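Supplementary Data S3. Sequence and structure tokens for construct A.
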Amino acid sequence: MAIATISSSGAQSRPSTQPVSIVLVHGAFVDASGWRAVYDILTHDGYEVLIVQNPTITLEGDVAATRRVIAAATKPVLLVGHSYGGAVITEAGTDPKVRSLAYIAAFAPDVGESVFELATRPAPEGGPPLLPPSNGFIIVDPAKFPSAFASDVDPGLTRFLAAAQVPWGLGAVQPKLTAAAWKDKPVSYMLTTEDHMVPPTIQRFMATRAKANLVEIKSSHAVMLSHPRDVAAFVETAAAGVK
């Protein structure tokens, strides 16, 4: 995600007192700063929270970046992914330090499956307004970005996000996964019912396949911007189950 304007009511960070480290992995077209409001809440509540800043050029590179952050965690890890970040945590989550996975409007591919295959799976809601690839990268149609990505977020912010898009590399979209951590570890999934980027039908298919603890929320794809407290509560519930 990208820069959030929602904050946690002036919350002050506290020392890390919880027995779980939380690693947050962002998705495509944006950067990790969109986790800011969620980060503020989680750190205030005593969690060690680490943020992955993925280039989103190749899946391999993003998995490597995530594994470096997992290695820096001082406690057992709850690995959280939004959107394309779900594919990243699916592969990186095989790390033995990762005890549980939490997907937020996220892709959860199987072994031998790519994000491209899931993103183009037929859905009654239709697909996202992506422009044709250019020089090996994809972006969302800037004119349609606000309504497709973050329809319940301040329009001024969504117009900025549309202009500040991080191009998504075909090297991240097309590779088939070689591991699927959700097969062996506890999974939670937050399904965004007003999502026009990852259709709710596809989200439900992935969550059901992963046997996830499913939570639904009336939200756009940018749920950490529009509902940061709900996202933080979802993450904390998942963290409470980490052993």
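Construct B, processed identically:
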Amino acid sequence: MSLEKNNQYLLEKKRKEMDFLHHFHLLGYDLLDLSLLEEFEWDRLSEDDLKMMKSRHTWQTGHSLLSLRSDWTDAIVRYRKKYKLKTDKIAYSGPVFPMDKEKMQFGMEIFTEDIGKQIDTMKELIQYIKENMALSLNVAVISHYSLLKKLLSENERQEPEIMRYLDERNLDGLTERLGDSHPVVRLMSQPVPEQLDYAKAHYPDLRKPVEEIKRWQDQLQKNSIPVVYCDLFSIPPQSYYKGIFLQFYTDHAVEPVVTGGQYSSPTRAFGMAINLSSLSLMKNIERGKFL
């Protein structure tokens, strides 16, 4: 890349970041900027912390463990707990460094139990993407993280082999371990388009999360997402994810462009993030597009 192209890329990148923050500030979001470095204390590492260290860039200094920020939601959860942050809505932008990758994330969080307000937040982000990024979200995948707690016992959820089979959607392996009468096996045996109705009809304990999925699914369809399908067997990456989880894809995309869902922080919350790789951002800015 020539120096002039590099200059234009950097200026456009910063402008897009400012556009995003300004847009959501005008919608009533408070803006938050956090340090790229996160500090952990060895004797206070939670089970979630230990699990996530495998995907973080970490090093030790003195008695502390330092890490590059790998996820904004996780950083905001920590910040809110530590400083008892009082705000209803937050917008942010900045890089994250999951292992072997660098991404720019633009996102927002809303701290409320009101699902209607959470859905409004999702709509605001979808509208921004369509109008300001010239980006078509063609596929949405919707999950509900409370389902596994109702489908699997605590002991079953502690079995690495069962969880690996579940992550792989390995029906044969799950049948061998759990038996063909197990709810997970029976549900996974159904055609994907029929699994949601099957769950509601055969398992009363699943009725509430299924109805929540249908509510969000309806809103996604009303917002002109062409393909919306459900994944009833998603495993939450951290324990604070409690409910609906969403992933949005463009045509031919392997990784989701937008992700988000319901979590606790320490109260109920909902957040979504636009994930931009530096390489894709550079190529598409050169073509006159944001993404």
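The chain has twelve helices and eleven strands. The chain has two domains: 3-37+69-286, 38-68.
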